[in-house]
Amino acid sequence: MADRQLMTGNEAMAEAAIRAGCRTYFGYPITPQNEILEYMAAHLPRAGGTFLQAESEVAAINMCYGAAAAGVRTMTSSSSPGVSLKMEGISYLAGADLPCVILNVARGGPGLGNIAPAQGDYFQATKGGGHGDYRLIVLAPSTAQEAADLAGLAFDLSDQYRVPALILADGMLGQMMEPVALPPHRDPATLPPKPWALTGAKGRDPNYIASFALEPTVLRDLNVRRHARYREIEAREVRWEEVATADAEVLLVAYGTMGRIAKTVVRRGRERGIRVGLLRPITLWPFPYSPIRKLAERVRAVLTVELSAGQMWEDVRLAVEGRCATPFYGEMGGVVPTPSEILTEVMRHV
Amino acid sequence: MPNGMVVVDRERCKGCGLCVGVCPFGVLELSATYNSAGYPVVSASHPEKCTGCTLCAQTCPDVALEVYREKAVAGSAVGSSAETPTDHR
Amino acid sequence: MSSTDTMTKVFARPRSLTEKPFTYCPGCDHGLLTRILAGAIDKLGIQERTVIIAPVGCAVFAYEWFRCDGIQASHGRAAAVATGLKRANPDLIVISYQGDGDLAAIGTAETIHAANRGEAITVIFVNNQIYGMTGGQMAPTTLAGQRATSCPEGRDVRTMGHPLPVAEMIATLAAPAYVTRQSLHDPKHVAQATKAVEKALRYQVEGKGYSLVEVLSTCPTGWRMPPAVAHKHVADVVTGAFPLGDLVDRG
User: Fold this and answer.
1) By CB distance 3.0 to 4.6 Å, which of A59, A201, C42, C43 could disulfide with A206?
2) What angle separates helix A339-347 from helix A256-271, to the nearest 10 degrees?
3) What is the ipTM of this complex?
4) What is the CATH number of domain C29-249?
5) Interface of A with C in 1-60 (CB under 8 A)
6) Is residue B34 part of a domain?
7) What whole-number distance in Å separates Cα of residue A41 and Cα of residue A25?
């Protein structure tokens, strides 16, 4: 029987990480994700793991790089400005094919911005962020329960494909308390082995971990092999949720906190007889292009709603490719639109 | 004086000459021959003077030198190479 | 002429080195220090437990020169990477090998905080007072008045700061087990540096904590000096600015 607790999204991700076998966590205080750091400080040592408050976000992600290289499940968490600082390290993790889970409990930006919920980090999360030609697996929860579920999934996918995984949440999800059914504890010793890890060259040739290859053809080949794994991820790991799409005239596309609000919009719209549906991407990369494209064949409009000036909107338009109208409704700076405001926008397209 | 011998790995030598300068007995000199990388390589122009003191090898930045000494005196090791005589492959 | 049949090898390539040739310039002390480190790994019998962390800089290939597990770190972050490795697996012997730009400029924060936490790692710090890999720019350790490509008139301490005394700074902290500054400019100092590297590694094996071995090294290419002249420069000038010896020994 699953263990059920009332907890914040931040705590849910932290607890789920420990239960997934995460045994090293390195972080730095920044609002609105401090509860993750504090939860790990209190609970990870009890699970036999290592918690370390680093001197910076830069140090924290590089500590993850070291721990990941040692073959141990590792995680860091931060919020937008801190995630910007981690970007070089994330690029190195990607370039060295190391698994790692990064939580971004995002806030308003750019710059110092504010601590209110925002989705302005979509480009950073899904289109690179750091330097070089790499991808992250990007998961976007919309409830505390899903935050816990995706934290566990992030570790599994990251290990399986040797690609760092990022969970893109926001302050609203992080701070909100909900009942969460927690997964059982997994013993790290039972996880799949990592023969590439740095465990000491005993009875085998040395293992080397690097993102470095001076010879262009060698680096090209490394990139080509990595991108072949990305194609595999795109083929197998796209996740999304559909609500009332069967007869929808207007399709909302929204993720995370906005995806949750959009569900209310659909419910209220349907109560008034408006044929509105929702597609909520759960994986932002790989992005659900194909399901959006299929629905675009039969709706009047695909309305993207985001807490940004329109970032995921670009992917939605790539998916729709002119099959129908692709309006956008967004707010920035930590302002969260109400269901009524969004419903008013929906009405303009029916 | 013990009898020694220095063996130069010509392909590792970069001709920096540091070994020539530290040899107390003038065993080594930069030769007029070049290796495949184009470096002039060191050679033992006076091998009979070598005592196997290892100073040259301890100074070489490219680990291009190996040093041998007559077995009779091998126990009285000179120099402080981290290697013991049984350590080599 | 002697033959190897009647002779014993008294100086051999350390077993912990791979066959890969070093990519350093002729006469560069980096290679010498790499050999010393490999010899110390052999002597302590820790090759099968060791992870070498290579920096960004001339030593970027270092992870492939040792017959040990190896990892390449981003510029300046080796101490953080070392922390992650050692905390994840305390049985590993973790050695970070870093130059002065890497450790003392871009990586200052990671360097100081790893030392201050007393991470059970060994830091080998190559102080050659210049950025070698990028073509001879000013380093945090460049001497007052020394010319470099980014201070062509010489380092003016009034606007460019003073050479950073890394070993002295680390020695002010409570946690480090061993902090020393060594040099490689002649065989006597090579022997002393060898002992220092061995001690630093032994302290890690014995669980005594953090060690920093700062090693004054040459950059004949960047300094525009023949290798032997560069060694004399270390003896005559550099050791005056960066005094040699042990600063902390809590063994």
Assistant:
1) A201
2) 60
3) 0.96
4) 3.40.50.970
5) 23-24, 26, 50, 52, 54-56, 58-60
6) yes
7) 9
